[in-house]
Amino acid sequence: xxxxxxxxxQFPEVGEVQEVKPLTSGWINQTYLVKTVAPEANDYVLQRxxxxxxxxxxxxxxxxxxxxxxxxxxLEAQNEADIDRKVLxxxxxxxxxxxxxxxxxxxxxxxxxxxxxxxxxxxxxxxxLAGLKFGEFxxxxxxxxxxxxxxxxxxxxxxxRMKQLREAVAANASGRLGEVQNIVDAIxxxxxxMCRAEQLYREGNLPKRVCHCDTKVSxxxxxxxxxxxxxxxxxxxxxxxxxxxFGDFLRSAANTxxxxxxxxxxxRFNMEIFKAFAKGYIQSARIFxxxxxxxxxxxxxxxxxxxxxxxxxxxxINGDTYYRTQYEGQNLTRTKAQYKLYQEAKAxxxxxxxxxxxxx
Length: 360
Ligand code: GN1
Ligand code: MG
Prior knowledge:
- This protein is of the alpha+beta class.
- The chain folds into two domains: 2-111, Phosphorylase Kinase, domain 1, CATH 3.30.200; 124-359, Aminoglycoside phosphotransferase (APH), C-terminal lobe (Aminoglycoside 3'-phosphotransferase, Chain: A, domain 2, Alpha-Beta Complex).
- The chain contains eleven helices and nine strands.
- It has a five-stranded antiparallel beta sheet with strand order 1-2-3-5-4, with helices on one face.
- Helix 4 (158-171) runs antiparallel to helix 5 and helix 10 (297-318) runs antiparallel to helix 11 (330-359).
- The chain is globular and about 60 Å long.
- The N and C termini lie far apart (55 Å).
- 2-acetamido-2-deoxy-1-O-phosphono-alpha-D-glucopyranose is lined by residues 28, 53, 214, 259, 308.
């Protein structure tokens, strides 16, 4: 902790520290809660940024500052109360930057949002609120003046993910290809169709906009009354297709099974969660969505389990080099579960479309 205290001293606003303890949220960055001595003063969150994944820290923090400053200005213009609980604020280090490099790692500090909680399970009620909030988040960022960098290039680019799979297949580094050839073939059959967003983008018919790119219920803070306070985990905020945030949320929230479910009968697409989320999302996002973006929402709900199956499968064939695994074959189990979810979503697409039409 000695070392951590030295790092915290680089962020003068924090003041006198009472204790520093690990906060268990996510495995990408290391996160600590910094409790301060003064009773009414803010507490803080200290994070060591994973710069293996986020290699351009300057761009990362530029994106996050642009986003949080813009949201803060909007909340101020609306005369919102309690703004420090509704948008993250990153604290400057002595040189004025919102991060500090200690010669080995990159660190940043944000204000801890008191009396907040994350939800473990998604219910129709919280799914509705999440839809409303992620739509509002996108709507607020629709006119962000700065250009945001693509922090992980091609992150949600389906053509790029297919290319990675095809390279994995060609190299067959793990020798596992024979075992999964039938899944590769099934995936290939739908590839052109699933890459149609990239096609529309090239033709100038689909824009990219600022998205969150890691929408899950755990990336949202709720207050003591179950109201949404704030969207968190802004590392992947970048330009993408707007429906990324729609499809990615449903990939985890509307799956009735686990991400690596063994029993595929448990993997179904939960229409109640879908409807609640779509209702909230359309309510807050329809002011800026184009007709084609709305039309592609059911496609997005299919795309994300499909893309995730492709990513897990490529990693399995590569010999598990990207996703951490807890047991032998987990990436293959994940692949099958995500592929099953894709099939379920595909079957539900007409019902999704009818429901969305009924909201408009
Ligand atoms: C990774 O670690 P987590 O859950 O935040 C991945 C996502 C995947 C997800 C699948 C930077 O996110 O894109 O959808 O695993 N993030 C990165 O569980 O690759
Ligand atoms: Mg994350």
